[in-house]
Each structure stands twice: as C-alpha cells, then as structure tokens.
Amino acid sequence: MQPLLDVVERARADTDGIGTANPRVIPIRPAAPLTANEAEVARQMQICNACRYCEGFCAVFPAMTRRLEFGRADVHYLANLCHNCGACLHACQYAPPHEFAVAVPQAMARVRRETYAHYAWPAGFGALYARNGLVVALATAFGLALFLVLALALHGTLWPGPLQGNFYTVFPHNLMAGVFGAVFLFVLFALAMGAARFWRDVAPGASAPGAAGEATRNALALTYLGGGHGDGCNEDDDRFTLARRRFHHLTFYGFLLCFAATSVATLYHYALGLPAPYPLWSLPVVLGTLGGIGLLVGPAGLLWLNLRRHPLEGDVAQRPMDRGFIALLLLTSATGLVLLAARDTAAMALLLAVHLGVVLALFLTLPYGKFAHAVYRAAALFKHNIEKRLPGKIALGAD
Questions:
Q1: Whole-number Å distance between alpha carbons of 172 and 178
Q2: How far apart are CA 185 and CA 183, in angstroms?
Q3: Contact 212/193 with Cβ under 8 angstroms?
Q4: CA atoms of 351 and 347, how far apart (whole Å)
Q5: Whole-model pTM?
Q6: Over the chain (399 residues), what is each successive 10-residue block's mean pLDDT?
Q7: 3 state DSSP class of 68
Q8: Using CA atoms, how far apart are residues 164 and 167, in angstroms rounded to an integer?
Q9: For 266-280, b where at least 16 C-beta lie within 10 A, e where not — what string?
Q10: Are 308 and 247 a contacting pair, CB within 8 Å?
Q11: Residue 261's closest CA among 239, 244, 278?
C-alpha cells in the first residue's frame, strides 16, 4: 500500500505553490463532506490512480488520471461515467479478498443510486428511487390496468365484440393523446431538470468543439461496454462476453423503434389525415413490431444477466429498481405484441386497457427509476469528451 500512496502524495506535493511550480494545474478544493459511499469511491480512485493497470479499459480511468483528489462532483461524474461492465474488477490485483478491497463497479453503482436521488426533480421525489422496486413497478402497472379495465366494464365496453382493430372506439384519440402527452412532457421536463442540476455541479460552463458528437456516438454504440479491447466485459467469471452490450442495444433501439412508431402514427393522423388503425405492413406497425421484439429479447437478456451477477459487480440494493424497470419493459412489449395479434378479436378492448395501464406505469416511473442512468451517463460522456479536448489540465477534488 505505501508505495502506491507515496506516488499519490508526491503528485499532491507537485501541486503546492499553484501558479508557479505547475501553472497548468487548476485548483478546485472540496467544500462539502462526502457520504460514506462517495468517500469509498474516492479511496479506491486514489489507489487506482497510483496503479493505473486498468487505464485502457473504459472512460473512467483516463478521466481518473486527470485528477489528484476526488471531491463530490468528481465522484458523481466518475460514477455515472462507469458502465458497470465488471472488467476492472476481474483484472484488479487489489480486489477482495485483498486488504485494499478495491471493487470499483460496486462502489460506483452505490454512488450512482445516490446521485439519482440527489439530482431528482422535484427534489422531494428523490426518495422514490429507494422505493421504485419490482413490487412497486408491478403494483403500479396492475393498479392502472385494473382501473382502465373497470372503467370499460362500468361503461359496458369491456367486451364489445370485434372492432376491426380501431383502438379509438374504446378510448377516444383526444383522451389518449392528452393523458399520455401530459405524462410524456412531465417525464422529459423532470429528466431535463435533473440533468441540468447534475451538469451544473460536474461541468459548469464546460464546452469543446466536437465533444457532443463524440459523446453521442459513444452513447449510441455503447463504446465502453466493450471492455477497452473490444472483446466485451465480464459477467460471472473471467470470460469476456459482449452479451451485456448486445442486450442493451436490443433494449435501447427497441425502445427507440417503439417511440418512432408512435411518432410516425402521430404524423399520419395530424399531418396526413390518416387515422388508425393501420395495416400490418404499414410503417407504424412495422416499426412497433420490430421495437416490441427488441424490447422483449433485450430486457429478458438483461434480466438473465442481472440474476447471475456477482455482488461485487454492482449494488445489490439497486437490483429491485433494476428488475422493476426491466419487468415494465417486458410487460410493455409483451402486452403490445399480444394486442397487435388480437386487435381484430373481441378481446381487443380488454387487452388495450391492460397495455395502456402498463405503458402509463412505465412512463410515470421513468424519471425515478433505472432509466435515469441513461440521462446521467450521457452527460458524463459529454464531460469526458470535453476533458479529452483540454489537455494538460488537472482538476483537484472538484466539489
């Protein structure tokens, strides 16, 4: 341990007399005490900064080397930059049962959960992250679906007979557009406010040409789920695998295809005057079907990986939230595909009520569940790509 810490202490000593000995160093001193989880990340980063064996694994370690100390903002930034692939844990000579107990994926995951709650908007809603688990997700979906089913039953339209796939004979178009439009706008605003608060802390006023484009490519390609060498990451053993990256791609692009299907259908309805239902070969249905399949296979694979992961490769306390989000994605895709297959049958109204209840539950929980990691990770990638374009500057424990 001492040789490693000596390196860190010498690096700190080099920063004494800022502005004379090393004019390129930017002093930013911590001003707020760290939580226990944040302090643990800072401790492990000090050890990793002296070792640097994993420097080429992902974006976290190059970002780490630009720092000599780790304040709260640094820790929040690095935790959200971590993609939790597990490669560094399997490569680390100081991982448990070593006395240094370096387990970067676990430490980062614990801090990520704290950042979601810390930056949530409205601020009081941050506590929802602690409660947004599998049981809550399923109960919310079941409750909303049951409410819609009972509403149809009271109006005598739960089993009206074949409706030729016309959903708007069950729920008027303006009603669905109003309810889901309002929820969607709230979700966007809540996530944007959280991201803005995060950005003000970790990268106030930062910018660099080309950084946004590269960050977008990194996010869309899931660059850092390749383990630094392109062979993938580690799951339950030392074997490299691209499974996590592929299942994430299926989930992410499945979600985007479903959103594209809804957007195209909206364009058809308002711009072209072509109301639903649409034929099976139409663009909205094709996009929705492909997206539904992606949202079925991807989350199923992620759930399989989640059930097999070693405790040191993540935060065990976060698993209920992870699985709740995965369960809602699976239910959304499954109920949507069943509804499509049975849209011309007498069961269409019942299936539509169940599907809409699940989708509404998914959207209501988006700002306060696992989905938030995509927003904060994208912001962290943006900051990382800005830093890469500003060589020669070292941040000291940004708060």
A1: 10
A2: 6
A3: no
A4: 6
A5: 0.84
A6: 48 39 44 87 95 88 92 95 89 93 95 93 85 85 91 77 73 88 94 95 81 93 80 76 92 95 92 88 95 96 91 89 94 95 89 94 92 94 91 55
A7: strand
A8: 9
A9: eebbeeeeeeebbee
A10: no
A11: 278
